[in-house]
């Protein structure tokens, strides 16, 4: 039975998923345990949103394959889904826009139950929210939250000059919230402590400590595949089969976008950044 005093949370993970690994799946489990352990949240769904091809990161294979591998990996989880809205957009999309989109979808689905207007209503309401305080009020009233789920490397990338817009960081962390999984070589607590912006929103950042040190990275997996090495137990077997059937990840595919000097996410430089 639903506990009325807990907020329902949807976890959204954005990234390349090139390819999806067991650690990506484990992030969701760790985050769910952590949030539910607070007694304040009930995690109802996880969403994986692979980035589009226009992201132009080196070695990024086509989104259709990354989506399909993520679908295979999540099909038996029962609560984690894959969403291709982001990668269907013709241009690379800032993460804040992806977060907004999924929050609107979430509200629309919730209000649909009561036959109230759907996406339009959710959009209008977001526009009406003119401060993070008031949106916090709405979130509590709805009992619905969407949080960005990421590894500590992504949180720490907030500090790379001109990579993220300051207002986007404030919105993601201040309005929605972030669940961050520790990763070897990172120290998210220290990073938050050293950033005045993140410190301001520290209560909206949940740091989840992964005690079983787990260095799986998609880069490592692609390297092993190029060298004909086994990647068993790093990825679900269904994903390994898919990679073999479609001959994905070769020396050639790793050169994809290698010529790109400035990927779209590195291209902005305006006065709003510091
Ligand atoms: N081992 C890990 N521990 C914690 N977080 C992870 C781990 N692997 C991936 N993540 C997180 O998963 C999300 C998606 O990651 P991404 O697809 O970029 O995988 P990755 O393994 O970091 O890829 P790459 O090695 O190609 O940079 C990011 O938020 C990333 O921080
Ligand atoms: O919104 C931004 O400004 C922004 C800047 C840099 C990266 N991102 C997102 O962060 C994710 C990083 O993924 P990856 O695989 O490059 O670690 C990916 O989903 C990007 O779209 C987002």
TrEMBL record:
Would the keyword ATP-binding turn up in this protein's UniProt record? yes
Q: Which reaction does it catalyse?
A: nicotinate beta-D-ribonucleotide + ATP + H(+) = deamido-NAD(+) + diphosphate; beta-nicotinamide D-ribonucleotide + ATP + H(+) = diphosphate + NAD(+)
- According to its UniProt record, the EC number is 2.7.7.1, 2.7.7.18
Instruction: Tell me the ranges covered by the Cytidyltransferase-like domain, including all copies.
Output: 12-223
Xref: Pfam families: CTP_transf_like
Q: In which pathway does it act?
A: Cofactor biosynthesis; NAD(+) biosynthesis; deamido-NAD(+) from nicotinate D-ribonucleotide: step 1/1; Cofactor biosynthesis; NAD(+) biosynthesis; NAD(+) from nicotinamide D-ribonucleotide: step 1/1
Q: Which UniProt keywords apply?
A: ATP-binding, NAD, Nucleotide-binding, Nucleotidyltransferase, Pyridine nucleotide biosynthesis, Transferase
InterPro entries assigned:
Cyt_trans-like, Euk_NMN_adenylyltrnsfrase, NadD/NMNAT, NMNAT_euk, Rossmann-like_a/b/a_fold
By sequence similarity, the record places it as follows: Belongs to the eukaryotic NMN adenylyltransferase family.
Q: What is this protein called?
A: Nicotinamide-nucleotide adenylyltransferase
What organism is the protein native to? Characodon lateralis
């Amino acid at each position: 039975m639903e506990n009325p005093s807990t907020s329902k949370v949807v976890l959204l993970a954005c990234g390349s998923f090139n390819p999806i690994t067991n650690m990506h799946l484990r992030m969701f489990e760790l985050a769910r345990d952590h949030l539910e352990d607070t007694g304040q949240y009930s995690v109802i769904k996880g969403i994986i949103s692979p980035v589009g091809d226009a992201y132009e990161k080196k070695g990024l294979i086509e989104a259709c394959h990354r989506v399909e591998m993520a679908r295979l990996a999540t099909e038996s989880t029962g609560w984690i889904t894959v969403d291709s809205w982001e990668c269907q957009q013709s241009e690379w999309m800032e993460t804040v826009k992806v977060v907004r989109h999924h929050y609107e979808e979430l509200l629309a689905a919730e209000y649909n139950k009561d036959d109230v207007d759907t996406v339009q209503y959710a959009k209008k309401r977001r526009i009406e929210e003119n401060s993070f305080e008031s949106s916090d009020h709405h979130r509590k009233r709805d009992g619905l939250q969407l949080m960005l789920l990421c590894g500590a490397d992504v949180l720490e990338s907030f500090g790379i000059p001109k990579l993220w817009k300051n207002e986007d960081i404030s919105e993601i962390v201040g309005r929605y919230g972030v669940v961050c999984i520790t990763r070897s070589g990172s120290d998210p607590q220290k990073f938050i402590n050293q950033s005045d912006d993140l410190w301001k929103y520290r209560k909206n950042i949940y740091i989840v400590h992964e005690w079983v040190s787990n260095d799986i990275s998609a880069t490592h997996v692609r390297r092993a595949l190029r060298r004909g090495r086994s990647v068993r137990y790093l990825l679900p077997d269904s994903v390994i089969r898919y990679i073999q059937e479609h001959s994905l990840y070769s020396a050639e595919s790793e050169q994809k976008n290698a010529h790109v000097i400035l990927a779209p996410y590195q291209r902005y430089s305006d006065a709003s950044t510091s």
